[in-house]
Amino acid sequence: MTFWKISALAAAAVLAGSAAYAGCGLKSGKVAFLGNDFPAVQDVVAGAKTCAGDGVTVSANLNKDYQKLQVAALTANPAQYSATHVTTSSIVPLLSAGLLRPLDDLVAKYGKDLEPQQLIKIDGHVMAVAFMANTQHLFYRKDILAKVGMEPPKTYEDVLKVAAAVKAKGIMPYPFALNTKAGWNLAEEFVNMYLGEGGSFFKPGSAEPSINNPAGVKTLTMLKDLVAYSNPDYLTYDSNATQALWESGNLALATLWGSRGGSILDGKGAAPGVVENTVLAGAPTVGGGKIPATTLWWDGFAIAKNVSEADAEASFVTMVHAISPENILPHSADAVWLVKGYKPTPASAGVIATLQEGSAKSYPLYPYMGLMHTALGDTLPKFFQGQQTAEQTLADAEAAYTTAAKAKGFLK
Amino acid sequence: MKHRTFFWFILPSLSAMVLFIALPIVSVLIQSVFVAPSQVLVTTQSCGPFGCTETTTVDAAATAKAAEAHPLGRFNGLGTYLDRAHLATAEVAQAWHDSPTLGAFVRALMTLPFYSALAFTLTYTFAVTPVALLLGLAVALAVNALPRAIRGPTIFVSLLPMIVTPLIGSLILFWMIDARGIIGATLQWLLNDPGLSLKASPALTWLTLILYGIWQQAPFAFIVFYAGLQTVPHETLEAAMVDGASRWERVRYVVVPHLAPLIVFVALIELMDNFRVFEPIVGFSAEASATSLSYAIYSDLSGEVPRFGSAAATSILTVIGVAILLAPVLVRTWRDFNRKVV
Fold this sequence. Notes:
The structure holds 2 protein chains of 2 kinds. Chain A folds into 2 domains: 22-134 and 297-354, Periplasmic binding protein-like II (D-Maltodextrin-Binding Protein, domain 2, 3-Layer(aba) Sandwich), CATH 3.40.190; 136-295 and 356-407, Periplasmic binding protein-like II (D-Maltodextrin-Binding Protein, domain 2, 3-Layer(aba) Sandwich). Chain A is 43% helix and 16% strand. In chain A, helix 2 links the parallel strand 1 and strand 2 (56-62). Chain A has helices spanning 3-22, 39-49, 66-75, 91-96, 104-110, 142-148, 156-168, 184-196, 214-227, 239-247, 261-265, 309-322, 325-328, 349-357, 369-384, 390-407, and strands at residues 29-35, 56-62, 83-87, 119-122, 125-141, 176-178, 253-257, 278-281, 295-303, 336-337, 361-362. By secondary structure, chain B is mainly alpha-helical. Helix content of chain B is 71%, strand content 6%. Chain B is built from 15 helices and 4 strands. In chain B, helix 11 crosses helix 12 (247-275), helix 12 (247-275) runs antiparallel to helix 15 and helix 14 (293-302) packs antiparallel against helix 15 (308-341). Chain B is globular and about 90 Å long.
């Protein structure tokens, strides 16, 4: 054996050794992750990639439209992705189609670092593991509030008063905004406010809709009163638009997603004076109710059912490693992490305040909630454009939902 | 040509048409008469970071088992076509019965998703097609009259709207017409109305979409007409000039009749194109004020719970719509064809 051969072997041995170390204790397996594309998920994927090497491959497809690929990709056998990003609502179609692998055994074997609250249990079985929380809450500008001499609002009625004062003083023509783009966003604001009013979407124990009621009317009335303080373009406002409005200093108050806090406070693209005066507060209540008018969301991962046992195990180990405190805590500013040892940052103050309220509700996990959400998104704009009364709009939303629910087999 | 030879000659394109056009349409047709199987629902408890709640879930195994015998779902006949999301026969009858005036009936009709989508689709088609044709012809005549040296660059610039991807083009314009964008702010200044917003009112949104459609569609008409103009016989034009015809008369009596077959062709293509208007609605975030049949299909397929049956029914209705729209032109072509044979 020549000298160079020996050194090559030695080098190979060293490489193999380090690869085995990098493999998170795994010998082999194929991990393919499908997820949404925002900084917190990128942090998780970066953590997962440290497990690659020595027979373990880790790949990820991060895509804003991941939800549209999910069901088809996991229906295939073997599934296109072994692990997938799920949220409070995007887990529902996967559960309904039975495409997720129950994780009880894997949690027992590898999940000692997971907090019990991270486990998403359906009917007693762990179906997903949550890693972050998100919710919509109030953002306000303390300098503007000082100018009008008012306290930070605790209710949406207060929000209206502050907005009226800001407008009356001529500080801003349109001091308030929330994500009111026709479709999903507008429907989400309805869901938030309706739960704050104490409403429920379905008749108990059935898929029959029940939104055409006084709570629904009050919800629509409150939303319309609020958007009176928004720019007339409000039916085109999604998260990107409202963030840009906030950063440009054109808003005094806004209800935005907590996950936008980090990118607003980083100061990139913000007008002078905006960042240092931005305060993130809990979600307001409405109509004298005690429940914050918002919905709580978690983001997590789930493992596909249609993959080999070895790949499922490798994927679980990799993902648990990816969301372990040592991987996640350096990225504390990117999200409200649901992991051991997470310390809130200024960017998460609003979400934490909403969570501490204790009574805020999780986004409803009914298999037909997605159809209700779509029906609301399609029908509500007519009310905001003044073409229909609240009662007519809600009756239309119920009719649109019923049509869809019948076609999907949820209603007879 | 012998029938046998003709058959072998046409076979490759015929089989491609069956494979790529006929079969997909049949598949869509089949999907549209079925709806999803009944879901077996169970009440369960769900727990997560925010506590436990009572909820309902689909018993996936039981549902799959019940659906085994009917993999396509439940047969629904024309049920999907007649439901509220499509032709809404029951709702239309009810609205007819309840409405004291024709105006009230039309307003009631416009709250139904299919009819409001159809209203915008037809308005857009019949507003954009003629104006784009006229504009294309006018630009073609103007470019044809230019000195040769600057024709090339002018043609290139005139074609730009067609080169820009519709979605990107509409997205760029969407930001330009924003109240703080260059066009939106200029309009506010010109009309002295600081509250003016092109995105807020349905009427202005329709107008924006139609203007965008004309801007986007005119170059196609222009380039076809410009090519046609190169074939106008000089002798006829010169004879008309000798007879003392003005420029307008030459266009009216020589150029336009010469281009007539091309005009029919462009009109046909643009009618079909405009009937499936979709990208500008997404680009301009106009779904609150304007939806089209294509947008309805997209929204069925892209929801959290995709609705294939509903999308399939709208697709078939769109195919029928295109057929009705093109019928006059096709009938005319057929008559011309028969006349030539005789």
